[in-house]
Amino acid sequence: MSDWKEVYSEILSSYVKSEILKHEPEDSVGLPPHLRVAIRTVFLPHLDLEDQDDEIAIIQHILAVTRKSWAESCEDEDAREKACPTKAGDYKKAFTAFTAVQKIFKEEIDAYDRERRDTKDPKTIGQRNRIIQQWWESVSDERKAETGRAAEKWNKLGAPKETHNS
To answer: Alpha-carbon distance 5 to 18, whole Å?
Structure first.
């Protein structure tokens, strides 16, 4: 009686070539390309010569695709690095009339805040912004225009040194 490997080897090899090697199972895990190449290289000597040629072509294709995608990703990283600001000042938001008024009239705003809330209670710190907004709404249009001009100037030339303390 012959061994089952001999009897079914031709059927098995044709099935492996036609079905298994061409289609990945749907729930399979995609291996990294270099690991796929390593696995194929390990089993390369155990294949027929005809199959070895096919596997070598597949390995070369995987490596070529990997090199191409790696080169593209390096180009993308270079473009991303060039697009990112290199100075911390590039991340700073521009001044608005409201932010400029908080710097220019700091003492007046602080006094208004102290009158309207208990500054010793740390739970009321969240009310400060609402109180400053109320103060801003009560400010005259002339003052708002003045702080708007100051904000534009600061955005072009930079804020004065005394505004950086707070």
So the answer is: 19
Query: How many other C-beta atoms are found inside a 10 Å radius of the C-beta of residue 101?
Result: 24
Mapped onto helix, strand or coil, the DSSP state of residue 119 is coil
Contacts with 37 (C-beta within 8 Å, 6 or more apart), sequence order:
59, 62, 63
| DSSP conformation letters of 22-58 | T---TTPPPPPHHHHHHHHHHHGGGS-HHHHHHHHHH
Neighbours of 135 (CB within 10 A): 18
Nearest of 141, 151, 140, 156 to residue 103 by alpha carbon = 151
For tokens 């492996």, the residue is: 16
Predicted TM-score of the model (pTM): 0.41
User: Cα-flanking dihedrals φ and ψ of residue 63, to 5°?
Assistant: -65, -40
Neighbours of 156 (CB within 10 A): 7
Residue 58, class by beta-carbon neighbours within 10 Å (0-12 exposed, 13-18 middle, 19+ buried)?
Answer: middle
Helices (H), 84-162: 97-104, 106-116, 127-138, 141-157
- Span 50-99, pLDDT tens digits: 888 888 898 899 888 888 877 777 666 666 666 666 666 656 778 888 88
